[in-house]
Design brief:
This protein is 37% helix and 22% strand. By secondary structure, it is α/β, with parallel strands linked by helices. Strands 1, 2, 3, 4, 5, 15, 16, 17 and 18 form a nine-stranded mixed beta sheet that branches. Strands 6, 7, 8, 9, 10, 11, 12, 13 and 14 form a nine-stranded parallel beta sheet that branches. Helix 4 runs parallel beside helix 5 (198-211) and helix 12 crosses helix 13 (389-395). The termini are far apart. The model has no long low-confidence stretch (mean pLDDT 97).
Length: 448
């Protein structure tokens, strides 16, 4: 049995009463065992959290670890060009080795930024490189193999045979769902309707329902995408997904910017999960999702950074700030999306997207010990006297303020030092592998 005692912290619990406590936390194995004032206990490891704020681990519901290696290689481009001229060709050139180091670099960044769990969409090939990296680093993730069997402008290395794609995805589900003592779960991840045939999506719908597995895909991100789906399938994105039986609590849709009233109602009524990615949506000029309206309708909305080439970082603190500010400007109302609602999206909202709201998203006894310690006594967050720590976290804090990150009861970073990843070696390896990839015959002409 392993124990960690965190003492003297300010705990933002996110429990049903949204209590903020001055308390100690006892972690036993992978669970929160006890929360109380001045716990008189001895533990294998002790962390003095005096002056620190303790929060539930942040959860990002739409990430592309496979793209971290391509950061800053597709800037200032419209989505269609971004995909066809840069991202798809780059993804098609991935090897097992390059996908693994891309995942390791991304996980390092996420841990250092206080994100303790993600829903990840890999690329078409070498998904096991991501799964193995998640396993080896002690991280928590829902991982899926990207599925693509349709569309124009798709490199040969990404275009799949429908039934091969389904076979590979089913194999990965059987091998990895529930692996690493439950830290790894599997999701079916068809890229988006534009890249997927009716047959593939119908089979994914059946497999999701039969196995109670998440489906994670993009939807309604861009007006070009909407027009193409209407042209090919005869209806808009969400209506089409509903027709196929995909909408519901197991579906996580990234973006959902260009929704009409009927689609918004379908998503809220069916319990479909929405992953809001404000930084990516701003950078690609995709638009601004109607998040306050969706929340009022009862939709479950979570937050995420999306991919490193369209953001260009994986900071949940930036996403929280972006999420709040863009709605204030869009609706010309400073109360459009308050800090506490945004923080809920970043914690409990993400837990619901993962289907793990009973285990993650708040600091409560019996829940998984995914916990982050944040130092808000910095020049850019001070003074802190009589301040609301949630507002400070959303509007002032940065990833550099994260001091310690614990996942599943294991310390992955303490005092800004990573415990399971050699960050210097990872950066060197990422530079080496990316340099090699950029000199390949398939990629070099893209940057000529």
């Amino acid at each position: 049995m392993s124990q960690i005692l965190i003492k003297n912290g300010t705990v933002v619990t996110m429990n049903s009463g949204r209590e903020i406590l001055e308390a100690d936390i006892l972690i036993e194995n992978d669970l929160i065992k006890e929360i109380g004032s001045s716990l008189d206990l001895k533990a294998e490891k002790e962390i003095d959290a005096s002056g620190l704020v303790i929060i539930p681990g942040l959860i990002q519901s739409h990430i592309h670890l496979t793209q971290v290696l391509f950061r800053s290689l597709a800037d200032d481009m419209e989505l269609l060009d971004w995909l066809k001229k840069r991202i798809w060709p780059l993804e098609a050139c991935h090897t097992f080795e390059s996908n693994a180091v891309s995942a390791r670099l991304g996980i390092a960044e996420l841990i250092m930024g206080g994100t303790t769990a993600i829903i990840d969409m890999g690329t078409v090939n070498h998904t096991e490189a991501i799964c193995e990296t998640v396993q080896d680093t002690g991280y928590r993730a829902v991982v899926g193999k990207c599925m693509m069997d349709h569309g124009s402008g798709v490199p040969a290395g990404l275009m799949e045979n429908t039934w091969d794609s389904i076979k590979q995805s089913t194999y990965l589900m059987n091998k990895w769902h529930g692996a690493a003592n439950g830290r790894i779960k599997y999701a079916f991840t068809p890229r988006f309707v534009v890249s997927c045939s009716d047959d593939l999506l119908l089979k994914v719908s059946d497999l999701s329902r039969d196995n109670d597995i998440i489906v994670h895909t993009h939807a309604s991100e861009n007006r070009w995408e909407i027009a193409l789906v209407e042209q090919e399938r005869g209806m808009r994105n969400v209506k089409y997904l509903e027709k196929l039986g995909l909408t519901g609590e197991n579906l996580v849709l990234a973006h959902c910017i260009w929704l009409n009233d009927e689609e918004m109602k379908i998503l809220s009524d069916t319990g479909t999960k929405i992953a809001h990615c404000p930084g990516s949506n701003l950078k690609l000029a995709s638009g601004i999702a109607k998040i306050p309206e969706l929340l009022k309708m009862g939709a479950n909305v979570s937050l995420a950074a999306d991919g490193a080439p369209c953001n260009n970082n994986l900071s949940m603190f930036r996403e929280m700030r972006h999420a709040a500010l863009i709605q204030k400007v869009r609706l010309l109302s400073p109360t459009a999306l308050p800090a506490h609602q945004v923080f809920e999206m970043a914690t409990l909202g993400g837990a619901k997207a993962m289907g793990m709201e009973d285990e993650l998203g708040s600091i409560e006894t019996g829940k998984k010990a995914d916990i982050v310690l944040v130092d808000l006594k910095k020049a850019h967050t001070s003074p802190g006297i009589n301040r609301d720590p949630v507002s400070q976290l959303v509007y002032s804090a940065t990833t550099q303020d994260v001091q310690t990150t614990i996942v599943n009861g294991k310390i992955l970073m303490r005092d800004r030092k990573l415990e399971t990843i050699d960050i210097d070696d990872t950066i060197l390896e990422a530079d080496r592998i990316c340099g090699k990839l950029l000199m390949s015959d398939n990629i070099r002409p893209l940057f000529a």
